[in-house]
Design a protein that fits this description.
By secondary structure, the chain is an alpha+beta fold. 28% of the residues lie in helices and 30% in strands. The chain is elongated. The strands form three sheets. The protein has a four-stranded antiparallel β-sheet with strand order 1-6-5-2, with no helix packed on it.
Amino acid sequence: QEWKNTFATWDPQDFCNISKVVLPTDTYWSPPIFILERVNGQNSNLDYMAVMHNGSFDSTQAFQVTLTCSLMILKFPFDTQTCNLSIASFLYPAVTDLVMKTRRTPAEMMKDSQSYFLTDGEWKFTNLSIIEYIEELRDGEFSVVTYVISMERQPTLYILNLILPTCALYLLDMAVLFGPSSLEDKINFQIAIILGSSMLAVILNDILPTSSNKPPVIGTH
């Protein structure tokens, strides 16, 4: 975050051409901000900020946070999820004291985010958009910046470990039903297929999140 304090300016020529100093965060006032969707997290120990001779303050801190997000898994494992990260400060009204603005465009932040997302994990970062608006509350109007993050699930692992075995069991079920085997062999094979289907159902139950309003299509079939 970056802001200006007109009372913290100096002439570099009067101080050995020093135009920038690094000070602890609690030395000067800094805007308190909150992440609205935050459940828990861990702050970094870099409690320092850079102060320029023109009164410009620059504070960069890394956060590792867990956010709440409403999941729509109807098309699992071919789903795309959209989550919000809202930053606000409800201590200073936006009309008179504090207005938050992003200093980079969504395209620039999208490029940086993709460079940080280096591992081939379960999710693929697809889009990032920014919404700046004023939240009206009982105590006044406050500035809010919301980052809308879209991520697409990588379905390869689920296709190999879940969908293909399930289809194979259904094909075996049909083959045994119309095959020339004896009744006793068909019953034994059907029991084995039922056990395999039960194991796949247990695996599916462990994989799927429990916070979705609608069950996935693959789970109902």
